[in-house]
Specification:
Blueprint lengths: L4 H23 L12 H6 L2 H26 L6 H27 L6 H30 L2
Helix pairs in contact: 1-3, 1-4, 3-4, 4-5
Length: 144
Amino acid sequence: MTENKSLNRLEAFSDGVFAIAITLLILDIKFPHGGVESSLWDRLLALWPFLVAFVLSFFVILVTWITHHDLIRLVRESSRPLQLANGFALLYVTFIPFVTGVLAENLTNSSEVNTNDLLEDCNSKLIDGRLIMNYAAIIISTEK
């Protein structure tokens, strides 16, 4: 943690949002309670799209959190532009569980691939915007 109290609050709030987003990922995975005709292995195997989406999204949030941590270390003090840029970054993070759910539901449905591609493209645009805003806010914060 940094020495600046306002920056500490920003970090703590951000870490909380990252933790909640990661928790929301796993809540989308529901164990299918099948009848006697399906074995435990078959029911677990039916979860593969959700597990793949979970692992990918967990990794994306993890890398985003590491990047966020590295960027915040560059900042000397919190500022309004930094807080706004950070909020935009957290908007992106909170959107990931939704995209994960859509991906998992449609991973085996080839007719819905275009919709999923659109959501992933929107998510990548959010990443681009978030990074630009974070870098701009950090430059403004470090010039004081």
